[in-house]
Amino acid sequence: MVKSDPVGDSVILSSVREEQLAVLFYSGDTWEIEIRITTKIEEANEVTWINFLKVDVKPFGFSGKFWRFLLYGSFFVDEKKKVALICDNPFSRVYMIGEDNYFKVVAPGEPAYWRHVCSYVPSSVQIRKGPVHARGKRKIRDC
Predict the structure, then answer these.
(1) How many Å is the maximal CA-CA distance in the chain?
(2) Which are the contacts of 20, defined by CB distance < 8 A and separation ≥ 6?
(3) Which candidate, 98, 4, 84, 104, places its Cα nearest to that of 55?
(4) Which of 23, 24, 76, 121 gives 12 a disulfide partner, CB atoms 3.0 to 4.6 angstroms apart?
(5) 55 DSSP β-pair partners
(6) How deeply is 85 buried, as exposed, middle or buried, from its count of CB atoms within 10 A (0-12, 13-18, 19+)?
(7) How many other β-carbons are positioned within 10 Å of the β-carbon of residue 1?
């Protein structure tokens, strides 16, 4: 998670499936959450993004204080349903946002200060599998 402005803006990076990235921007000035997803990643030279969702949280009573919830949060996106789940870890809440300014508190909870619960970054390292022996031990191969 990267904070862009200690006054009220937040930026959170996440992964989508195995080959895409998603980034969540929250603006304390406009009270909007915007999520973008990569459509193309060419090595480290070029990254192309599309706008996925944009939701104004001010009508839901969060106004400028919503950024505090995102300081230690993480999120997932469902591209088919066009929704995102934002995990607000310090306050044990999960928010669902979607098209047409959809916003819902999915899992209200008691304040609890525990580590990130839904962060996942896949590895780009391929795991080589060798033949399996009868006892379940893998044969070691020379590389």
Answers:
(1) 63
(2) 37, 38, 39, 41
(3) 98
(4) 24
(5) 33
(6) middle
(7) 15
> What six digits make up the tokens of 40?
């193309």
Take residue 60 and report the two structure tokens written for it. Answer: 């839901």
For the chain, what is the radius of gyration of the CA atoms?
A: 19
128 token code pair: 């080589």
Q: Which two tokens stand for residue 134?
A: 């009868």
Structure-token pair, residue 29: 């000035």
Q: What angle do CA 28, 32, 38 make, to 5 degrees?
A: 115
Using CA atoms, how far apart are residues 139 and 135, in angstroms rounded to an integer? 11
CA dihedral 94, 61, 27, 89 (to 10 degrees): -20
The contacts of residue 38 (CB under 8 Å, 6+ apart) are: 16, 20, 21, 22, 47, 48, 49
Which pLDDT tens digits describe the chain residue by residue (143 residues)? 444 445 567 788 888 877 888 999 888 778 888 999 998 888 767 888 999 999 988 887 765 555 555 666 788 898 899 999 888 766 667 888 999 999 888 766 665 555 544 555 555 555 566 665 555 555 444 44
